[in-house]
Structures are given as structure tokens and as C-alpha cells.
Amino acid sequence: MAAIAIAKLSSIALALLKLSRAQEQMPFSWAPSNPLSIASIPALGFGTWNLDKSNASEAVSVALQTGYRHLDCAAIYGNEKEVGNGIKAGLETIGLDRSSVWITSKLWNDHHHGDQVEQGLDKTLSDLGLGYLDLYLMHWPVASSGGKNYIDYVDTWLAMEKLLDTGKVRHIGVSNFSPHQLKQLLDQTTIKPAVHQFELHPYLQQIDFVQWHKDNGVSVTAYSPLANLNPTYGSPGKSKDEPPSLLMNEDITEIAKERGCTNAQVALAWGVDRGTSVIPKSQHADRIKENFESANCKLKEEDYTTIEKLGKKYLKRFNNPSDSWGVSLYHGLEDA
């Protein structure tokens, strides 16, 4: 299977985009800019969660060659060395330098203690073969130590603030926080998170929470923008209580047919149109290209109305480790 995926990946031609810059907080744009700032994070990113080591390097290289200029990584994904090799190969192939790509990674739960935070960053930079990250996120508001998990984030954030003075990171942010946790962070620290990354898709729209971020000047990145297509979440629609796969959803299919897009492109275009960046992942060349071409999918007002109804009909959060970790997450949010 990996060999087939690699063969497919090698078939994609180069697709380069021009870059520009903005400084103030504003909605994401499809086009990347250089030098990259929070205001100009490319709206369409390439995710590396569940990217198999067997072809992770080739997938990342092809993503860059296809035109992606935003990569999302994490220490816990266990593939940062391979991703780093892909970054190096891709940039060499297209003749661009490191500064042309926005690269995010994340601090894992086992490095929340103050003196461990920079160690975690250094390991990520070494594995990725980079001198700096554009964005470093606290992956969860949860620390893991001695076989136990517990809510812990303020002291970790204070340690992350110090990273900004090292030149190893340009921005810091969070992931998977609740409204209360965000408010507490803002009240007890001095630097506001530049970005909050959390689960968002047509089945989990979190409209009020997204608006809160806009009102408070925190950019949003949507992970799992294609909902239950991530294999970690099991088989889509396996029971009548589970939402159907977005690729099989009749309403999304009808919109895709009307707009000349694919179902995946509809979901990604919807995510970007609401002012968030999206980070779909794929190991297959044709899907990498298909997702990138979602920039050409233009939705109409009635499409947004239809998709909003889907969020009410199939409300579902797929990524919630609260029970397995023994901690309470997402308090005050939909389907917590």
C-alpha cells in the first residue's frame, strides 16, 4: 500500500504561488506571504497527523511542490524526522528557502514542566532540521507525569513565553482549550495566544466559539476539517447514531455537484470562508492535489445555510480523550 501511495505521490507537477505580507490580525488568505506573519498564515495547510513514516517524507515534499506553504506538525505524531526530510527535499526541488513556508509544531503533555518546555522545542527543531518554528502550540491543557494526567497550562505557558526571546519560535499558541481555560490564560499571563487550533468541521461548527476568537484577536486553525475521514475516529457511519462520512453526505454531495467541486473541497472551502485556516492530511498524491484545489471551490449563500443545518443534525466531536486520560476537557463547548 505504501509503495502505491509513493508512486502516486511522484506524479504531481510543481505548483508555485507568489507571496505577500500583512501585519495586523485579519482573516486568513488563500495565498501565502513572505515573510510570513500571523495575519498571513496560508489558509490551506498540510497536516501530518497519522502520516505514515513509510512515505511521510515524500508526501510532505509533494505537498510543497503542489503549492502548500503551511505545514502542521507535532512531536507526538512520531514522524517529525521524516517530515523534516520532506521539507528539505521539497524546498530544494522548488528552489525556495525555509522562510517561504509557515511551519507549526506542538509541545506534548510530557514536557509541561517549566524546565522541559525548551527541551521539547529543541527536540522538535532537531528532528525537523529547522532553526526556528513560525508557531509553537501547547498541544493540550494537560500535563502527563508519573503515569498520571492532570490539567496544567498556566506555568507551561509562562515558560513558552520565554521561548520568544530565544529566536527559536516566532509565535506561540494553544490547542484544544476550553473557553474557561482561555480566559484564565489571558487573565494570568502577559502574552495572548496568537493561534488556537481545535477541531472544526461541518459536524462540529462551534460558531459562537469561533466568533469569540475573532472578537478577541486570536486566529483559529481547524484540525480534522474533513470530520470523520481521519482513521483514528473509526469507520464513518458505522451506526445510525454516527454521522455519515463527509464523502457520502447527501447534502455535501449535492453542493459539490452544483458547484463543480468534490465533497472534500466543499468542506475545506467552507472552513476557509468562515475565517479559519484548515489543515487536511493525505498520503495520496491525487488527494493532496484535490485538497489544494479547494481554493477554486466557490460556495453560495444557500450552501452555508445547508451546511449550518448539518451541524445541528449531526453534532459530533470526534477527538475527546477525556475518559481515557481521566481529565475533563472542552467544558462549556458543544458535544464536550
Describe this structure in words.
By secondary structure, the chain is α/β, with parallel strands linked by helices. The protein has twelve helices and ten strands. The strands form two sheets. It has an eight-stranded parallel beta sheet, with helices on one face. A two-stranded antiparallel sheet has the order 5-6. Strand 3, helix 4 and strand 4 form a beta-alpha-beta unit. Helix 3 packs across helix 4. The two termini are 36 Å apart. The N terminus is likely disordered.
List keywords for this structure.
single chain, 336 residues, alpha/beta, 8-stranded parallel beta sheet, two-stranded antiparallel ribbon, 12 helices, 12% strand, disordered N terminus
What's the quick description here?
The protein has helices at residues 2-9, 56-66, 80-94, 114-128, 154-163, 179-188, 207-215, 250-259, 263-273, 285-292, 301-313, 322-325, and strands at 46-47, 70-72, 102-107, 135-138, 142-145, 148-151, 172-175, 195-199, 219-223, 277-278.
Write the layout of secondary structure elements.
Layout: H1 2-9, E1 46-47, H2 56-66, E2 70-72, H3 80-94, E3 102-107, H4 114-128, E4 135-138, E5 142-145, E6 148-151, H5 154-163, E7 172-175, H6 179-188, E8 195-199, H7 207-215, E9 219-223, H8 250-259, H9 263-273, E10 277-278, H10 285-292, H11 301-313, H12 322-325
Parallel strand pairs: 1-2, 2-3, 3-4, 4-7, 7-8, 8-9, 9-10
Antiparallel strand pairs: 5-6
Helix pairs in contact: 2-3, 2-10, 3-4, 4-5, 8-9
